[in-house]
């Protein structure tokens, strides 16, 4: 009896190890890493040109944008599942109830629900969306659905250098539930 149990345990271990090494396990772990990278965008913004740029902008769940930002440069940090020296842009303004913003890190991906609405897969570049608790609902170009659970962007950029941060609480929940194979944001890669 004990010998049969050990034999079955050995067979299950070999099958499980083979299954992990054939890609399914690596796709699972790659999805967990991607979910972890989605939780926060954080970095040092840099204007690599002689012309200075300015941003003092804070947004809280796309309901309360406050400030002004116009930066088209680089970011040294983490953004859009990438780490390094990446392209970065933000054009935004807000007066609490109303505003507009266009922002993103790295290459634009219209299939990313943080960059475009679900029905906008044909876009080729980032859009400027309405913001604020009035602008989001009364404006002509409502924001992507996930912007309402993103706390940010928050950026201070004076001249040639600054700091930027965005927190995504839905992605934190997606990361935690992802360990059980639930994908509430439907952003995991195919196996």
Descriptive keywords:
191 residues, alpha+beta, 5-stranded antiparallel beta barrel, elongated
What does this entry look like structurally?
This protein is of the alpha+beta class and 191 residues long. The protein has two domains: 32 residues; 128 residues, no CATH class. The protein is 26% helix and 36% strand. A five-stranded antiparallel beta barrel has the order 1-3-2-7-8. Helix 2 packs antiparallel against helix 4. It is elongated. The two termini are 38 Å apart.
Helix content: 25-40%
Count of alpha and pi helical runs:
4
Tell me the span between the first and last alpha carbons. 38 Å
Strand content: 35-45%
Number of E-type strands: 8
Structure described in brief:
The protein is of the alpha+beta class.
Would you spell out the secondary-structure blueprint of this structure?
Blueprint: H1 2-21, H2 24-38, E1 40-46, E2 53-58, E3 66-79, E4 82-95, E5 99-105, E6 129-131, H3 135-138, E7 150-159, E8 161-168, H4 169-178
Antiparallel strand pairs: 1-3, 1-8, 2-3, 2-7, 3-4, 4-5, 5-6, 7-8
Helix pairs in contact: 2-4
